[in-house]
Amino acid sequence: MNITIKRFDRYKQPQHIEMAYKIETEGLTLLQALQRIKSTIDPTLTFKSGCKSGICGTCGVRVNGKEQLACGYKVQDGDVIEALNYHTLKRDLVVDKSHALDSLARAKAYLGSYQKANITIEEEKRIELQSDCILCSSCFCACPVMAVNSDFLGPFALTRVYRYAMDRREANPKEAIDAIQKNGVWDCTLCGECTVACPQGINPKMDIMNLRSLSAQYGYNDPNFATMSFGVDFGNGFGF
Ligand code: SF4
Ligand code: SF4
Asked: Which of 42, 97, 193, 202 falls between 20 and 30 A from 136, CA-CA?
């Protein structure tokens, strides 16, 4: 089997190269294949992993242009492997995720003001899925808005805001709703790429739609609405 890895080394020229590796990868996960390449062909190949069981979110990469956890993906002949998008490259498949993770603080995606509350099973179920986020950043890298606005808060931060806004132990959900009005909830195009990319089955697009409803309840509306065209104004209040 042949796989290609897009590699990066800031101290070499050229910094970006594509290397093809021929290995026996039958039945291997991508992470196992990378470990085999490192131990038998090229010890300089650099990648990251943690739990090796899809829980820690450390080994996210792109395979043929789609985000995957290397520990859960069965490698195929001809696969092209590269680092995650929209992060600072450190080396080969290792990226610095700090910009993406900073979005959690910018969005106030945490329990801000605690109050005592008895949570029912139904209420817990409503935020159970969002609580499964492993911060792998796959959704962030799949989001086309990041290509044009690096300040966009991104899907996983918004999903987490929704998770805490719906938690009755949060005494002041408005604080986070205020924080996501700029570069946040209205900047999403609702394309759904984040939902497709999520290995945990989380649906950030739906959470963002729900956050829009919550925002409206707090008096906000889509700022783009004011600039939208609804046709020709004939001066009589009717347009087409
Ligand atoms: S639905 Fe919104 S947040 Fe998700 S990938 Fe598309 S633009 Fe980004
Ligand atoms: S929402 Fe899904 S894809 Fe995004 S960071 Fe969390 S687990 Fe990863």
From this structure: 42
